[in-house]
Amino acid sequence: MSAPTTTAPLAAGRRRPRLRRGALTMMALIAPSILLLVLINAYPLFVAALQSVRDGSLIADGSFIGLQNYADALSSPRFWKSAGVTLVFTLLGVFGSWAIGLALALLLRLRTPGRSVFRVLLLLPWVVPVVVSSTSWNFLVGTPDSLAPTLARLLGLGEVYFLADPFMAAVTVCVFKVWISFPFMLLMCSSALSSVDTTVYEAAGMDGASRWQQFSQITLPLISRSTYISWILMAIFCVNDFPTIYLLTGGGPVDSTTSLVVLAYRTVFQDMRTGPGVAIAFLMTLVLVVVSTVLYRQIRKADVA
Predict the structure, then answer these.
(1) Does some domain include residue 9?
(2) Do residues 35 and 156 both lie within one domain?
(3) pLDDT tens profile 282-303
(4) 89: closest CA among 198, 170, 187?
(5) Which end of the chain is more exposed for a tag (fewer CB within 10 A), N or C?
(6) 74: Cα within 13 Å, side-chain hemisphere
(7) Is pLDDT of 172 > 90?
(8) Could you tell me if residue 73 is inside a domain?
(9) Are residues 154 and 216 in the same domain?
């Protein structure tokens, strides 16, 4: 009876050094990649942090001024106007593209002819480069003789200046963002819906649940984890989206479509003020970290549920 009790600790003792050697080997193999990633990401971040506390330019470091750039940004009306534009642009971009993507994902679950072709066509706005898409939209709405203003006149709406009027320019930019982003949400929602067991809907239908009850009490809770992940990713995409706005409107007219990332670009590369521009970028990053943390907590709650 004593033999098993003595051999078991010996076998466990042999396995532990092997596991430790295997872990050390794996760490040694991945260490160069981790070091390279740290250097690639940490060095620019460190340099940017130094620039944000100086009053330098693209050609000079400038003197140390502490947190003055952050204070100036937070006290600037232009910063808060751009923050409002970014907030509206992000909310409409996230929830507008999610609503359309979810609706199309539910529609594509139906057994209809040509469903595969339709799915591929729906991905085109996301696949086409944003430079091509923005150029096409400029031809569509850019001048009074373009297709959209012409249709507006034919419908009796008068002269509609989609890119010259501040309000219409903001609406056009948001619609354009939703148009190029809903395919991403379509893929996320489709993958989430494919993991839902259809027998749940059959049981709910037998219990008398309506279509809306099945959607609100079964579908949305079951895909909530994927939904929060897609919201985090799309919020990051929207806040950091420079080409969508700049290629379509350039941030105008009268700063009506100037988001924080466009404002940071103008401050650094047009006004030649590196410190304030980088400070704006760091404030954007701080907001994204807070939003991502809140949504990540919702993901953990969904996992627990």
Answers:
(1) no
(2) no
(3) 999 888 888 888 888 877 776 5
(4) 170
(5) N
(6) 8
(7) yes
(8) yes
(9) yes
